[in-house]
Request: fold
Amino acid sequence: MDSERRYGEEEVRKVFARAAEADEEERASLPSPVDGGLTLGELQAVGLEVGLSPERVAAAAAELDATPPLVPRRKLLGVPISAGRIVDLPRELTDREWHFLVAELRATFDAKGEVGADGGIREWSNGNLHAVLEQTESGHRLRLGTRKGDALETTFLGIMFAVMAVIVAFIMVADGRAGAALMVPALMALGGGGVLVANAIRLPRWAGERERQMDHVAAWTQSLLAAAPKDVEGT
Reply:
């Protein structure tokens, strides 16, 4: 049917890659993408030819479809300080499903957090980390986001030590002092640079981990809503 979902070249490659990675013992040579795209049924047929079960291909395709669009990271000196996802939902969550989602958020992020509501908006938050259920013009969505709280402070501290090291070294040299005396600004520069290097290592890892957790919550929520509502409003 013309309305049937067709997976483009890059999506076909991702589906087969995900399906093959599901089991290390059953890796196979992945088929080449076909021009014009493939339906799920065609993907499953091609997958069978290289040893991938229809169930595994369908699960990989569902995982791909559930992956929410990227939310641009906020950056400081080229290093990410935020992470986020926006997930379009097929329908509104019932009260019971919302409680299930809150429990999943707490388990995924290992944080109790606080629950709030304002009009038609529901929110779970834990510090800078938040999950918001809200209405849109076309339906409903789940907005996930967080910001690294100490990123600005540690970056400022690193820059401050580096700048101070340059100023102190300049003053010492202008005053005719050198040699061992320059160890003080050298240590200051080393400390400031160390802080900036540490941020450059830890913050991308932090952002990647938060995004993986958000992808899990997004896929979990989509799976929850794929079933019939568990309760009816007012019951």
